[in-house]
Amino acid sequence: MGFKEQIDTSRLPEHIAIIMDGNGRWAKNQGKFRSFGHESGVLSIKDVVEGCSDIGIKYLTIYAFSTENWNRPIDEVNALMELLISTINAEIATLHKHNIRLNAIGDIASLPQKCIDDLKFAMEDTAKNNTCTLTLALSYSAKWEILEAARKLALLVKEDKMKIEEINETVFSSQLTTVNMPDPELMIRTSGEHRVSNFLLWQMAYSELYFTEVLWPDFRKEDLFEAIVDYQKRERRFGKISEQLN
Ligand code: IPE
Ligand code: IPE
Ligand code: MG
Fold it and tell me: How far is the CA of 176 from the centre of ligand 1 (A)?
């Protein structure tokens, strides 16, 4: 039996977040340039998005470019930005085919103008799709996001639009880039690295973490289904004890 058949569709995670990692090592293993790894990684994204659509995952968030990734060699940064633009434009039809809405989080204004324009077009064009929301984290870091939220709240207090006592988890969450999304129940990282690299630090407070040795360009929907099967075997206690759960 494949992993897909083992999934209990009545207990799916609503939101899956993925730290796709290992493109560079995958390419290097084959004596190719790192950019070849990134290009191949796009096929994995396509397959995983299709997998989410197959089984009914509502939100998929993919870490595509971190704030820290700006520190990579300029050629690699440029290649990633160009790949982003070409992929967005090439995949709009596929997004419509699967009724997927494209969304982006991060410091989008820091991206090259062509990226901003094409992203904006694709997001507006797919805004009415409602099977799944695919969010690309671009120029994203969780510390940046949390600081931005703190600044916005501080301003509201300063302008007498909010009282300090009114700031609670819900209010804080509403200032984050993931507003209107549930927190990810499952967070996956590929390539054998066991760290979260500044991704969704607030939202992952109770995420189930899943690490796999598979390098991102080798990751396919079957690997995603395997992760979901693993997730469904876990007991999520949220601080309680086993006997308190029904
Ligand atoms: C992940 O693969 C893609 C991005 C961070 C953009 P890497 O490029 O980090 O690949 P490795 O970790 O060097 O193998
Ligand atoms: C994390 O991958 C960022 C993305 C997946 C976009 P990195 O490969 O940049 O992470 P670190 O720096 O090795 O932790
Ligand atoms: Mg990496």
Answer: 25
Which residue minimizes the CA distance to atom 10 of ligand 2? 197
User: Looking at the 3D structure of the chain, how many domains does it have?
Assistant: 1
The alpha carbon dihedral of 110, 112, 115, 119 has a sign of: positive
Query: Taking the model in full, what pTM does it have?
Result: 0.98
Distance in Å, CA 121 to ligand 1 centroid: 27
Question: Residue 93 is part of a domain; what is its CATH number?
Answer: 3.40.1180.10
127: number of Cβ within 10 Å: 11
Query: What tens digit of pLDDT does each residue of 176-229 get?
Result: 999 999 999 999 999 999 999 999 999 999 999 999 999 999 999 999 999 999
Determine the Cα angle at 87 with ends 107 and 51, to 5°: 95
What 3-state DSSP class applies to 139?
Answer: strand
Kindly report the protein residue whose alpha carbon is nearest to atom 13 of ligand 1: 24
Q: Which residues surround ligand 3, an ion (CB under 5 A)?
A: 21
> Domain containing 41: what range?
12-141+184-234
Angle between helix 74-97 and helix 113-125 axes, rounded to 10 deg:
10
